[in-house]
Known about the structure:
Elements: H1 15-20, E1 22-27, E2 33-38, H2 41-44, E3 65-66, E4 72-73, E5 79-82, E6 89-92, E7 135-139, E8 156-157, E9 165-168, E10 172-177, H3 191-208, E11 216-223, E12 235-241, H4 246-262, H5 266-277, E13 281-284, E14 288-291, E15 300-306, H6 319-338, E16 352-357, E17 372-377, E18 379-381, E19 384-385, H7 390-395, H8 404-413
Antiparallel strand pairs: 1-2, 2-7, 3-4, 5-6, 5-9, 7-10, 8-9, 10-12, 11-12, 11-16, 13-14, 14-15, 15-17, 16-17, 18-19
Helix pairs in contact: 3-6
Amino acid sequence: xxxxxxxxxxxxxxxxxxxxxxxxxxxxxxxxxxxxxxxxxxxxxxxxxxxxxxxxxxxxxxxxxxxxxxxxxxxxxxxxxxxxxxxxxxxxxxxxxxxxxxxxxxxxxxxxxxxxxxxxxxxxxxxxxxxxxxxxxxxxxxxxxxxxxxxxxxxxxxxxxxxxxxxxxxxxxxxxxxxxxxxxxxxxxxxxxxxxxxxxxxxxxxxxxxxxxxxxxxxxxxxxxxxxxxxxxxxxxxxxxxxxxxxxxxxxxxxxxxxxxxxxxxxxxxxxxxxxxxxxxxxxxxxxxxxxxxxxxxxxxxxxxxxxxxxxxxxxxxxxxxxxxxxxxxxxxxxxxxxxxxxxxxxxxxxxxxxxxxxxxxxxxxxxxxxxxxxxxxxxxxxxxxxxxxxxxxxxxxxxxxxxxxxxxxxxxxxxxxxxxxxx
Length: 424
């Protein structure tokens, strides 16, 4: 490891990351934070360095700009409004209407802003300054939530009516690019690359947790045209909410009530019960267990939990657990692609959402929560999608087209796998 490896205020790399992953920070032309996360030995050692200069003529994202009529318009953070019936905060980010869409039937742009820079290419609005990279993390150019310096985070009301509280959506959105190959599939990445991605989640969780106003950090991945991805490049995102998202709020209510009644952790007891039942456990290693939850909603749904108790966020994982997670996640993606049979025995590129549920940063209920990954797909057959119609969308009352036992049985049909053998 080079002795010029930068130090960060809240993230401390473990033994593996210290020796095999190098983080190089810079800023993009408009002032957004950007981080290279290299696992190539020549960059880790410092023998090679990354391009830090972003040549695009972008104005600072916090500077005022001129509108079509020549009027000076100050930069404004996205707004959010609270639904008085549910208490949910709804961010409203109109600037996202201008983001490039290069994938699927709604594609309106050419080029790939997540690809490495290609000198001479007519498309020169990419986000990566260098001509190659391993993994990169940077602030989203078209964020759903954003903190604007000097803008007070004070409540006000729509139409002056206290029924409808509104605030700035004072959060943060980041992008994590998994690989420079824009045609790569996450399922095909080597375990060592996924290990670097795991480190990126841990790094950002540790650093962002110290930013004022952030309440929850949510790393996630949308994959596949059916999910609605606007960029096909292998990547994920990290949403940093200035509130606790509705799904986590519901889980916190139940985990807290369970602790008050039983004196134990609900998520830990769920894992213990699944291990005792055995039928829905689909694979495990020394540090992680993957199972189909007994009350699964989706036609393909898997929950992944750490074995060790007391882990609330990704940055609390030790080296063995981060390696075990990389192995588990690689296996999950591969087995997900093999789940549906089109008749040729080759499986398919599964559309999925991978959602990390971490404990909130400041809420006192965090002590009774436990880190877990919820992985699911909209696909219910090789040629069918589960659409969220009246009952699901209108009443959030889920109707499952299968059973968790059948989902688990299909995974078991794909054959045994030795997760421990995958680490080099």
